[in-house]
Amino acid sequence: MDLQLQGKVAIVTGASRGIGRAIAVELASHGMRLALAARSGDLLEQLAHSLSTDCLVYPADLRDPAAPAAFVAATQAHFGQIDLLVNNAGAAKRGDFLAFGDEDWQDGFALKFFGAMRCCRAAWPWLASSQGAIVNIAGIGGRTASAEFSIGGSVNAALLNLTKSLADRGVRDGVRVNAINPGSIHTERLQKRIAAFADERNVNTLEAAELMARGMGIARFGAPEEIAHVVAFLSSPLAAYIQGALLDIDGGQTRTL
Questions:
Q1: Between the chain's N and C termini, which has fewer beta carbons within 10 Å?
Q2: Confidence of residue 29 (pLDDT cuts 50, 70, 90)
């Protein structure tokens, strides 16, 4: 299917591994040119060299308040346009609420929420000019609270609210803004949780993954590529009437309205 993305420019944050890397690979396969940001410059360079498209590699810590605007400015200077912003960077600690201090909460919000907000603010004029799109990668914890995910759930909920707010503004300015809530996706972070679960239950990792998925009420864990496919669709003109959508891609784990 031709998604009509050839030659367009996408910013992808947190692109060095996991879901972000899969998104970059997917968008490149549709002919998009990419601006890639993450803290790991080496991994970004490896990714860029593997893709057959023009890539701007921008190693940066987007928790730095000045970094998002600088990254967006570098993208505009390099490509002369911005058509898509994918806010994927950010992770939060899991664990007991009472074990977290202020610095843990501040760090949780610094990248995934404030980094994304600042990228949106900096990129907005260029996206309005191109009638482009924003896709925020949040998470199902923003819709269903969990005692072990108090920071991440709060951050995701804030990002989902921001998505709706910017979608409202986007109707006027011609910028489409949507969000994806991944469920349990087979990334390095999930692999560590599976390994820990396997040690606790004294089973192999394959059996541990099956037991964990069953406990969540799903048939299996997702693949990063399954998130990337939806990002590409939401970025395309084929999704022109989708605005302010919060899409759960979680194998059915979220059962609430």
A1: C
A2: very high
For 174, the enclosing helix (H) or strand (E) is none
118 close to 68: Cβ distance less than 8 angstroms = yes
Reported as a single tens digit per residue, the pLDDT across 123-144 is 999 999 999 999 999 999 999 9
Q: How far is CA 167 from CA 2, 108, 132, 164, in A?
A: 25, 24, 12, 5
Question: Which residues contact residue 94 at a Cβ distance below 8 angstroms, ignoring those fewer than 6 apart?
Answer: 148, 149, 152
pTM: 0.96
pLDDT in tens, 101-111: 999 999 999 99
* Sign of the dihedral defined by the CA atoms of residues 141, 142, 145, 146, in that order: positive
Q: Report the CATH architecture of 9-184+224-245.
A: 3-Layer(aba) Sandwich (3.40)
Domain boundaries, the chain: 9-184+224-245, 186-221
What's the angle, vertex CA 190, arms to CA 185 and CA 191, rounded to 5?
120
pLDDT in tens, 44-93: 999 999 999 999 999 999 999 999 999 999 999 999 999 999 999 998 99
Strand partners, 134: 85, 177
Instruction: Round to whole Å and give the CA distance between 231 and 179.
Output: 9
